[in-house]
Amino acid sequence: MRRPVLQRMVALARPNAEPISTMERAPMWAGRMMWVAWPAFLAAGMLEIVVFAVVDPAQMQWAGQALPWSRQAAYSIAFFVFWIVAMVACSLTAMLAMAPWQVNARGEKGETPDNNPDLDD
Prior knowledge:
- This protein is mainly α.
- The chain contains 4 helices and 2 strands, in the order ααββαα.
- It has a two-stranded antiparallel ribbon.
- The longest helix is centred in the first third of the chain and has 33 residues, at 22-54.
- The radius of gyration is 22 Å and the shape is elongated.
- The termini are close together.
């Protein structure tokens, strides 16, 4: 039986090492989440500074009426909206930076190369 793609790549990088288990893959995804969340947080903070240097939240209107929010509420809501938009942008960047074998590693039913020999190359 052929070895899964990920195990073959690890074997090339670390010839004398044990194969990567599912528990060892979890920190990879946690690291990727931080690659997305931290730059998005910084971008949202910078965007907040730039936008509210120009716009006064007390004078914002929606459909011709003043918003019923305090300044702090407007700052908070805007920050989280900016953060979500920046996280989407960072997620797309992280996805585009992935190797093709990482993107296509899952089958139709969520199989990975570890549990489906048809996904081996």
